[in-house]
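Entry 14. Ran structure prediction on the chain below.
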Amino acid sequence: MGNEVETRSTRDHLLQVGLRRIHSMGYAATGVKEILDEADVPKGSFYHYFPSKEAFAKEVLALYVGIENERAGKMLQGKAAPLKRLRRYFEELIAVYGPTAEISGCLVGNLSLEMADHSDSIQSLLHASFANWQAGIAGVLQEAIDRGDLARSNKPQELASFLLNSYEGALLRSKADRSNEPLKNFLHFVFNVLLKG
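Output, structure tokens:
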């Protein structure tokens, strides 16, 4: 029992360190040696748990997506009006991943730019992550349509795709500009123009 807990703990610790490093530095700039040094774990331990750096990155991405799915579940559900919940959710994402955050940028977006063309297995996971994320947003938009807050002519999946793509683009631009303005612009046009009832 003690070994199983230690194994789980070492593996989880490596994933936590990897998440922080890959999110802040990128996949290519994160070496296995740096992860091991920061985690204070011997080299053999890494390859005991993960057959390759790419397999490790997939698990790091799955960990990040799990954390974000939990955030979305908490913030997109509730008794408040659907569009208010959706705005609060995007405001939270901007606070957590915007240019003033400790680590800016979305790991799903960052890895899409860096890895989607080079790894079929990571691309597949990125695709599934975006599809799941989009479905969650579409569910809130459908609620808004059902309540009469948005016109019935809206197509929630397509609208959710547009919102997600716009958010990711604004987040990327905010990094390039080192400014919150693209994200403020995103919030303004989405919630004061596009989704205004």
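The chain has two domains: 1-50, 57-194. Will compare against last week's run tomorrow.
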